[in-house]
Amino acid sequence: MKFYFAPMEGITGYIYRSAYHTYFGGIDKYFSPFIAPNQNRSFNSKELNDILPEHNEGMVLVPQILTNRQEDFIRTARDLKGLGYKEVNLNLGCPSRTVVAKNRGSGFLACPKELDQFLEDVFSSLDLSISIKTRIGRDDPGEFYRLIEIYNKYPLKELIIHPRIQRDYYKNQPNLQVFADAWKLSRNPVCYNGDLFTPDDLEGFIRQFPETDTVMLGRGILSDPGLICRMKKRELPEKQRYREFHDAVYGEYQKVLFGEKTVLFKMKELWSYMGSSFTNSGKYVKKIRKCEKLAAYESIVEDLFQEQEIWHEK
Ligand SMILES: Cc1cc2nc3c(=O)[nH]c(=O)nc-3n(C[C@H](O)[C@H](O)[C@H](O)COP(=O)(O)O)c2cc1C
Q: What start-end ranges are recorded for coiled-coil regions in this protein (predicted)?
């Protein structure tokens, strides 16, 4: 099984990715949170920083682009090729209202004609691999059957499917019926993404789809950075590894972010997921959420690591 790390805007930037790769790893491909180009520029400085090769050493990274304008996609993909990238990914999944209102992300799925033209222009202009990360529709899962006909016209590097519609955001269950059809209908290699949070989830998925050879995971890894090790039945990472991982992310954020509040905002978001890696972490995470000073934050984290253990459910 190949494992991909899902792009997660605001969280899995290069600092998180590099620390994860150093202390846990086991990932075949990382995807960058989306780059949103406009007419004037391919990426802003934050986006460029995220995908600079020197910030992503030793890992396979695929930059993701969010746009519905072929000119912007083509220019940005060429710029990324200039930086050494061999594959770029098109975001057809973002459910955010402001993105969807502009017919981008999962909003683009409701404009099949325009999407088809976009892909035709993109594939005829670019000589690098292009993959797609898609939901199964904007308003209705039935939209997928028209979309797969479009995807099948182009030689995608792979089609990563998160089987929800826009309105689901991350709620409700992934639609495995439509995914099963997608698996049968797709001419391109398919990767599954959605709600694989434990080794049991993965085993259940494999029982249902024994031929799938690639899965992408997001929130599961944020909640337990040791999840891939557990899924691969490797030695379970010790608490010290989580500590070093935390300290690396925290140290790097302090170097590049301005002000205690900004660093704390990032660490609070990280703990909103990673708290569940520990036994009885509720009260510590609550205190972290209320924290306003780095010194207080450090002392709570110290207590958590001293007093609690890593929680490895099956
Ligand atoms: C906070 C957050 C940010 C996300 N950012 C992106 C993004 O930039 N690009 C993208 O394609 N998907 C993004 N996603 C979706 C994830 O990549 C993934 O498809 C989703 O979380 C489902 O996978 P999971 O159940 O393994 O988490 C984001 C999800 C979350 C929760």
A: none
Low-confidence stretches of the chain (pLDDT < 50) are 314
Nearest CA, atom 28, ligand 1: 8
CA distance 131 to 189: 10
Q: For the chain, how many structural domains are there in total? A: 2
Q: Does residue 105 have its Cβ closer than 6 Å to ligand 1?
A: no
Active site members? 94
Q: Measured between alpha carbons, how far is 303 from 314 in angstroms, rounded to an integer?
A: 26
232: annotated binding-site residue? no
In a domain? residue 185: yes
- My answer on whether 260 and 289 are in the same domain is yes
Instruction: Based on the fold, state whether residues 40 and 185 are members of the same structural domain.
Output: yes
Instruction: Name the amino acid, one letter, at 168.
Output: D
190-193 and 87-92: which strand pairing?
unpaired
